[in-house]
Structure formats: C-alpha cells, structure tokens
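Renewal narrative, Specific Aim 1. Our central claim is that a sequence can be written position by position from structural information alone. The example that follows is taken directly from our test logs and has not been curated for this report. It begins with the structure tokens describing the chain, in the order in which they were read.
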C-alpha cells in the first residue's frame, strides 16, 4: 500500500473557525486516486487546531468560537503570558480539540458526511500562516 505526503500552507486567518475543506481537497487531488484508504491531516502548531463539524450553517462556527472562549477565557490568571493574553487560552483550546484528523477515502474522494467540513480552528488573534502535513495511505 503506497504512502503519499504533501505540505499545505494556509493563509493567515483571524481568530475563529474557518472552513478549509476546499483547500485540503485541492491538495489531496495532487495525489494519485485511491480506491480505498485514509487521509491524515496534521497541523504543525500548538495554538491552532483542526476539527470536523457542520459546514452548512454559518452560525455553527460563531457558536463554536463563543463556546470555546467561554471555556478558556483570556482573563484567567495564566502563568504563561509571554506571547500575549490570547496565547495560553489558545493552547488550552488546541489541547481540547486536537492537532490531527483522519478521514476515510473511497473512489478517490474524501468520505465526509453530507453536512461535514474540515475546520481550521484559529485560536490566536493573529496566528499567522498555518502549516498542515497531509498524508494519504491506501490502495490505488
């Protein structure tokens, strides 16, 4: 079973949950068509994360941001503050959501559900460009 890996650089985004499915799918299309397999997406940062969630209603990303800001607010008495007040809450959110996703592949397509999309969860006000490592494994 072959392995393929590519790097994807995402443009900087403001704090929030951003649908990146089209960018991941475009990068995936650069790989050979897999009959069946798995796609692994990993973010190389500790203050942003990846999630699969509903991709149809624009209220969902806003509500997710509100919920995570409530769970890990900036006003707590964090000790790690050298990178600004949004840094430690970003690490907390990243730990809760996670740094990677695994998505099934069938007939050369990602097997996301009808209402599912891949989100970059940007937890910093100005996180800068983000790097993803995309790895596919399976039968061609």
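The sequence written for that structure reads:
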């Amino acid at each position: 079973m072959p392995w393929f890996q590519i790097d994807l650089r995402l443009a900087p985004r403001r704090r929030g949950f951003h649908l990146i499915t089209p960018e991941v799918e475009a990068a995936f299309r650069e790989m050979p068509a897999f009959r069946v397999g798995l796609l692994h997406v990993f973010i190389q940062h500790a203050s942003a994360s990846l999630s699969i969630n509903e991709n149809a209603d624009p209220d969902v990303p806003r509500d997710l941001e509100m919920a995570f800001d409530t769970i890990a607010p900036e006003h707590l008495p964090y000790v790690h503050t050298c990178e600004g007040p949004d840094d430690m809450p970003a690490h907390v959110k990243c730990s809760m959501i996670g740094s990677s996703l695994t998505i099934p592949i069938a007939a050369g397509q990602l097997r996301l559900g009808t209402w599912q999309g891949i989100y970059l969860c940007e937890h910093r006000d100005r996180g800068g460009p983000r790097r993803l490592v995309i790895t596919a494994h399976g039968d061609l």
